[in-house]
Amino acid sequence: MPAIISVRSLGKTYAGGVIALSDVSLNIEQGEILALLGPNGAGKTTLISAICGLVVPDCGQVTVAGHDIARDWRAARAMIGLVPQEITIEPFERVINTVRFSRGLFGKPPDEAHIEKVLRALSLWDKRKARNMELSGGMKRRVLIAKALSHEPRILFLDEPTAGVDVTLRRDMWALVRRLRDDGVTIILTTHYIEEAEEMADRIGVINHGRLLLVEDKTKLMKHMGRKTLRLELQEPVEQVPQALAPYGLRIEEDGRVLVFGYDTRAGRTGITRLLADLAAAGISVRDLDTEQSSLEQIFLTLVEESA
């Protein structure tokens, strides 16, 4: 199946010489959730804006379901719903009219059943007659999502959708995202909550300084790039690591009662067997041990530091 979005050699430099995108190429598959991670100023929003036709790139090509975003922009844009970072809705308009108007902008005929379905899914139905200015910040962000879904897009961009949203609203939003994905909607999101990307995404993309560092299946990324940590609970606490154990890079925690050893899961030999033998030779007895996999946040930070 061909990619629903294809980005080829995209580049964008803003006035002043700021390189926002540098030779970015990316395929996004239909029905997947792709999370774009990167620090502030990495190029995430510029990439989304270029795909949506809001920013004109200096070079490269973007197609959406085969439609060139520059030459056949109307057909391409009709397939896309965008939830921007900034809350930009008419403060004096009522919620339901805001959503109706967005549907009309795409030339869609009125469909009150669909509008009601969207508002109910976002817990906005009871607020449908309220003016936007009367809503909380979290509810306003829900209105942005309702606007983006008003014309029944097959692709949904979520740019920091849960910024400033409380835990309850965030949980409801992600439940909606899952339902949309189950209905075949392709979802691309940026988020500063890396645990959300770890939970929700099928694939992870990491971008920094305008360069796409990688796009990888989340499970494979965790497996291939992750490190594991071995925590050794000791029979007796130690004040310092013996010199003979220095090559292991052990870290002392919990007032000397725990030693922490990090190792690469990709390595042919982890060094654990040799470490345990050397601990015994140094007179250090282990009471218990446990391992834990590195998180997506740790992998992300490592990639960003390496690209700095």
Task: Report on the architecture of this protein.
- By secondary structure, this protein is an alpha/beta fold.
- The chain has two domains: 5-222, P-loop containing nucleotide triphosphate hydrolases (Rossmann fold, 3-Layer(aba) Sandwich); 227-295, Alpha-Beta Plaits (2-Layer Sandwich).
- Helices cover 33% and strands 28% of the residues.
- The protein has ten helices and 14 strands.
- The chain has helices at 44-51, 73-78, 95-105, 112-121, 137-149, 167-182, 194-200, 218-225, 272-281, 296-307, and strands at residues 5-14, 18-28, 33-37, 59-64, 67-68, 80-83, 155-159, 186-190, 203-208, 211-217, 227-234, 251-253, 258-264, 286-293.
- The strands form three sheets. Strands 6-7-8-3-9-10 form a six-stranded mixed beta sheet, with helices on both faces. A four-stranded antiparallel beta sheet has the order 2-1-4-5.
- Strand 1 and strand 2 form a beta hairpin.
- Helix 3 packs parallel to helix 5 (137-149).
- The longest helix is centred in the middle third of the chain and has 16 residues, at 167-182.
- It is elongated.
- The two termini are 36 Å apart.
- The relative contact order is 0.13.
- The model has no long low-confidence stretch (mean pLDDT 86).
